[in-house]
Design brief:
The complex is a heterodimer of chains A (about 550) and B (about 400). By secondary structure, chain A is α+β, with helices and mostly antiparallel strands. Chain A contains 16 helices and 20 strands. The chains are: A alpha+beta (about 550), B alpha/beta (about 400). At the A-B interface, helix 7, helix 14, helix 15 and helix 16 of A face helix 3 and helix 9 of B.
């Protein structure tokens, strides 16, 4: 360790070992891993944890079958890490069996295609035990019809394969909470306005502004990590670096979510341009995804467009016609921070990751994490933390693959919550999914204050105790934050029945006025409406009209939602 | 004189009443609950914060409200408490809603009980923090009342809880609970729980000697149910009621022929369309992602009228090209409707009159709907008389 890394330019001791900028899955992953190894960490997130791509992904920890043919080592490490994540956060994973129907003209072509897929997934099966996945099954046309009667006729057969789903936002929250409990300072809604550098160019800290309180300040550290995903070039420029120093190729991806599980299997379909898209049973709804398009707009305001939604529906309609009459209740939009390349089509871009050491740009001590994906976040964070540990002379063992995430250390039977908390079974099951062993802490609140057992959002459902818990222990500051952590207000009614109530509770829990609570609820409703707009169909249109009229009756013309 | 009213929400009922008052016996067609059944209990002419002066109430509208029996239209605006913690003025209201205006400067007890959709403590705090309460020094306090008889009442819908109070012994139970609470406030503010068929709020007020009333209802709550109940009583006295969905309205001879799902429904000299907007299902959104551009808003029945939004009348009949809500905003959903003159005459279809949410570009407010029903009825009547 170089001596000048120990102090700031004024000779003052540094506040911490590592500053992480960005509260996506990479940032919180590094903050957690570094905290596990005993480093002193501060993390700054401009919006909320999992605000960007991490909270708007397809919600899968997949084993990477697409790499199987040209880079089986990636498949091996993906499957291995999927197994690790299962081990440290068992409550957050749920099985998603995939169904790939084969449509080919002529029996010969069908048989060839089917045999090809069968052989391919035979190879993949070898890796499935690493992640407790089941081997694939080759299915006849009749079997496919029996499994998913809603599929369009004419499939010659197909194969199944096994993957794991996850709530990406919950994964990020679990990492952030764990880091915090291990001593890290985690600041959300707090943006870095400048990366501070010494005369020799080395980076030693950040200037920040809290976007809620307006408080400004500085924090110094021996090393800095830019883990801001699609924002990485902007973040690099805050340190006076050229934005090309942390270059990415931003790829917008959207998902549409439907009000219920339409299928038991994830179904793969082909879009008009030949890309693979899917219809995914995910938690208590279905998800259509995804698109991949270069994006140059405002990263804080990424929303799906009507064209993108139509593209997905049109594709899925071909294999699952009933999706046409399904009720879309919202969209996710995120921007992938893909590795930069000029030339290739979006789909051909690498999903790999890399660490940029900005010493080559004259900014020693600053690193950027570029690329990556949700499924391999832990590995990427570990690689980054290894580099930090080496620089800091930290020799502690890697533990992020064995140390349980909050809630992952203890199994809770949802029926226990039903019996002890008087919760309804569905409330208990959803609570246990989100919090694992820590659902007992929410239960404890209810036992101490029975009033808090009230179900505030009945679509999901979410109780008052859980809202107060995520405000007190999971860094939630407003209704949008609560929704990200609990999925409150994201059901069919779009928050019509719960957003204002949630606002009152959050305001109460944070010592703000009822009026402030109403403002944050309106903010949530406006955001939600913007995100739903592109996907509104017949059934949801009635709900939207009703919501708008109900809000106008409540709040007058001031409730106008753009 | 044969006049049909299609739809029996606020607008259709007001139209039927006005027709009956002028000596006609209208036929009212209706099939499903619309948005009137989902209203909050507040009666406005338009967004309440846009009204600076007291909107005039015509004698016809006042007569309709009196005939309906569920509404109160006082000489001045009332002040009501909403289910979401706000206080706001309203021109009229469902009779069960507590008018706070006479209670200015006093202590109002907010009934605290363990229902999931009700938090008296935070509501009282929110009401007390409102500008009106501060200006008038009115105080809202939560008061624990043992008003739940069974544990399951925590989670039943507020409509079911309100309906439970229709039983006289249940009203007596609530009365006792209020009496033994140990406080004597200037008034009791309850949630929307005070009966559907019976006037529980006024019974309790009389028994306690202080006003007892409700907040507004959430969509699908007690206020809408009370309207429907009052509506059914009124229509039973003044109209022929056909509970069938109208599928088609087409010109025939000197008037219009109606067809319902049950078949031929007769010919009428004029017709009032009070079929609601998007929320009620009178106007449907069609969307096929494979045939984008070929779908959009359309009437949920066939009629020779045009749909309009933002002052634009759609080409062709009853349809509009697919709207992009990202560009136009979701508020289009409240603006789309049947193109009509200010007097409610459907454009291009003499003898068809439009009222309520079915009108393009009009406020989605209950009192406006009632007023537009009266106007449409007058037009329909004049048209029918002219034909005779």
């Amino acid at each position: 360790m170089a001596r000048e890394l120990e102090v700031d330019p004024n000779g003052r001791a540094l506040d911490c070992d590592v500053i992480v900028i960005g509260g996506g899955v990479n940032g919180v992953g590094v903050a957690r891993d570094a905290s596990l190894r005993g480093m002193k960490v501060a993390l700054f997130e401009r919006n909320d944890i999992a605000f960007g791509a991490s909270g708007n992904s397809s919600g899968m920890i997949h084993g990477g079958p697409r790499y199987l043919t040209y880079d089986p080592a990636v498949t091996h490490s993906s499957c291995l890490d999927s197994g690790h994540i299962q081990h440290i956060a068992p409550h957050l994973l749920f099985r998603i069996p995939f169904l790939m129907p084969i449509f080919k003209s002529g029996p010969l072509m069908s048989r060839i295609a089917l045999t090809g897929y069968d052989a391919f997934f035979d190879l993949y099966d070898a890796y499935q035990p690493l992640k407790a996945g089941k081997p694939h099954v080759r299915l006849s046309a009749d079997e496919i019809r029996a499994l998913e009667p809603g599929l369009v006729g004419g499939a010659a057969g197909g194969v199944t394969f096994d993957e794991w789903g996850i709530d990406g936002a919950r994964l990020c929250i679990a990492n952030a909470v764990d880091a915090r409990e291990r001593g890290a300072e985690i600041r959300v809604h707090c943006t870095v306005t400048e990366i501070l550098r010494r005369e020799d160019g080395s980076a030693y800290g950040v200037r920040f502004r809290d976007r809620v309180s307006g408080e400004t300040g500085t924090r110094s550290a021996r090393l800095l990590v830019n883990a801001t995903g699609a924002w990485a070039p902007i973040t690099a420029s805050l340190g006076g670096l050229a934005s090309t120093a942390a270059r990415i190729r931003p790829g917008k991806g959207i998902h549409v979510f439907l009000d219920r599980r339409l299928t038991n299997y994830a179904v793969i379909a082909h879009a008009i341009d030949g890309r693979q898209v899917f219809l995914l049973p995910w938690q208590n709804m279905s998800v259509l995804g995804t698109t991949d398009d270069d994006y140059y707009g405002d990263l804080d305001q990424v929303v799906a467009t009507t064209d993108e939604v139509s593209y997905l529906f049109q594709a899925v309609e071909h294999v699952f016609p009933a999706v046409r009459s399904a009720r879309a209740i919202g969209t996710w939009g995120g921007v992938r921070p893909t590795l930069y390349a000029w030339g290739p089509n979006e789909d051909q871009l690498s999903r790999e990751h890399q660490v940029v050491d900005h010493r080559e740009h004259g900014a020693d001590g600053l690193y950027s994490m570029i690329g990556g994906k949700l499924a391999s976040y832990r590995l990427f964070a570990e690689e980054m933390t290894d580099i930090l540990a080496k620089r800091l002379g930290n020799t502690q063992a890697r533990r992020s693959h064995v140390a349980p995430l909050p809630g992952g250390d203890e199994q809770v039977d949802p029926m226990q919550l039903v019996v002890q908390g008087g919760m309804e079974a569905v409330t208990a099951t959803r609570l246990e999914y989100r919090h694992g062993g820590r659902s007992l802490r929410v239960l404890e609140r209810m036992q101490q204050k029975p009033r808090e057992a009230a179900v505030v959002c009945s679509c999901e459902p979410v109780t008052e105790a859980e809202i107060r818990y995520v405000v007190e222990h999971e860094l939630a500051q407003d209704v949008n934050d609560v929704a990200r952590r609990t999925r409150l207000g994201l059901g069919a009614c779009g928050g019509m029945r719960c957003a204002l109530r949630c606002g009152r509770i959050v305001a109460d829990a944070t010592g703000r006025s009822p009026e402030a609570g109403q403002r944050m609820a309106l903010d949530f409703l406006v955001h939600g409406a913007r995100r739903r707009s592109a996907a509104v169909g017949p059934a949801q249109a009635r709900q939207e009209a009703l919501t708008l009229a109900a809000l106008a009756a409540e709040l007058g013309s001031g409730s106008d939602i753009p | 004189m044969n006049i049909a009213v299609v739809g029996a929400g606020v607008a259709g009922t007001a139209a039927a009443h006005e027709l009956a008052r002028q000596g006609a016996r209208p036929t009212v067609f209706h099939a499903q609950a619309g948005s009137s059944a989902l209203y909050s209990g507040a009666l406005d002419f338009e967004a309440w914060d846009r009204v600076h002066e007291l909107s005039p109430v015509t004698p016809e509208l006042a007569r309709f409200c009196a005939a309906l029996g569920a509404w109160e239209l006082g000489p001045a605006a009332a002040q009501i408490a909403t289910l979401e913690g706000n206080l706001r003025p309203t021109r009229g209201r469902d009779r069960a809603l507590l008018d706070l205006q006479p209670l200015a400067g006093q202590r109002v007890a907010v009934v605290e009980l363990e229902r999931d959709d009700w938090d008296a403590r935070l509501l009282a705090r929110s009401y007390s923090a409102s500008a009106w309460a501060k200006r008038t020094e009115t105080v809202f306090e939560p008061v624990r009342v043992r008003a739940l008889e069974h544990h399951f009442e925590r989670r039943i819908s507020s409509y079911d809880f309100a309906a439970a109070h229709d039983a006289p012994q249940r009203t007596a139970f609530l009365l006792t609970a209020l009496k033994i609470s140990g406080v004597s406030p200037a008034a009791w503010l309850c949630g929307p729980w005070l009966g559907v068929e019976r006037a529980v709020a006024s019974e309790l007020s009389a028994a306690l000697g202080v006003p007892v009333g409700e907040t507004t209802s959430a969509p699908g709550g007690a206020a809408g149910a009370r309207f429907e109940s009052a509506r059914d009583r009124l229509l039973g006295q003044i109209a022929l009621v056909e509970r069938a969905r109208v599928l088609r309205i087409e010109p025939r001879g000197r008037g219009y022929r109606l067809e319902t799902e049950a078949g031929e429904a007769g010919e009428f000299a004029s017709v009032v369309l009070a079929t609601g907007g998007v929320a009620a299902g009178g106007i449907a959104l069609e969307r096929s992602f494979e045939r984008r551009g070929g779908a959009g808003f359309r009437l949920s029945f066939a009629a020779p009228v045009s749909i309009a939004v933002d002052g634009e009348i759609s080409e062709g009949v009853s349809s509009l090209a697919s709207p992009d809500f990202v560009e136009r905003g979701l508020s289009v959903l409240l603006a789309v409707g049947i193109a009509a003159s200010p007097a409610g005459a459907a454009l291009g279809a003499p003898g068809l009159f439009v009222a309520g949410d079915a009108l393009a570009e009009r406020p989605r407010a209950a009192l406006f709907a009632a007023q537009s029903g009266v106007i449409a009825a007058q037009g329909a009547l004049a048209h029918a008389r002219g034909k005779e």
